[in-house]
């Protein structure tokens, strides 16, 4: 099947399609050309860090909060005092066993340990390299031919396969959307702007020839074939 991406497009049109597919603006692209991330791009990328980080914190806090509320209600004390009492109980398993028995100790100690374990596991899923990239707010330039690739994972029982798309440039592989996959002229030279540690693609533009200008890009004849 041949889609609209196979029709001749100027570099200006390719850049417009890429900006929509990758979610960057002209202001962001200009900042990336100067080696900087914009505030909008930081906000756009921060969700990739905050979602797993929030999940990890939630796993650690939930069992502690549950037992703190329970102790505070039972002992008629404030939450801060209830938390202190919970910490003392956890630090003295023998006293916990004597007070609540094996089942009570298992519930309290086990739930807290499981929460901490899940938090550690969730913390390992946080893209810390991207986190430091966002703090640094810098980007680097990677220039080269971009190959758009498509991968399919077949599902059992003949159901529709899972399709994923990515750009390959200078040994880096960047997951992209179907719209971005269709936006580029496959095999043409592009200038990609990526974060230095996590190698996250933030924007991309067609490579201009010496006779080209950024304000009036020259047309290209290379088609894109969507697979």
Report on the architecture of this protein:
The protein is of the alpha+beta class. The protein has 2 domains: 4-37 and 138-206, OB fold (Dihydrolipoamide Acetyltransferase, E2P); 49-124. The chain contains 7 helices and 6 strands. The protein has helices spanning 11-22, 26-33, 39-75, 79-91, 93-124, 128-136, 178-183, and strands spanning 140-145, 147-153, 162-169, 172-176, 189-194, 201-206. The strands form 2 sheets. A 3-stranded antiparallel β-sheet has the order 1-5-6. Strands 2-3-4 form a 3-stranded antiparallel β-sheet. A hairpin with an 8-residue loop joins strand 2 and strand 3. Helix 3 (39-75) packs across helix 6 (128-136). It is elongated and about 80 Å long. It starts with 10 loop residues before the first helix and ends in a 21-residue tail after the last strand. Mean pLDDT is 85; it is low at 1-5 and 210-227.
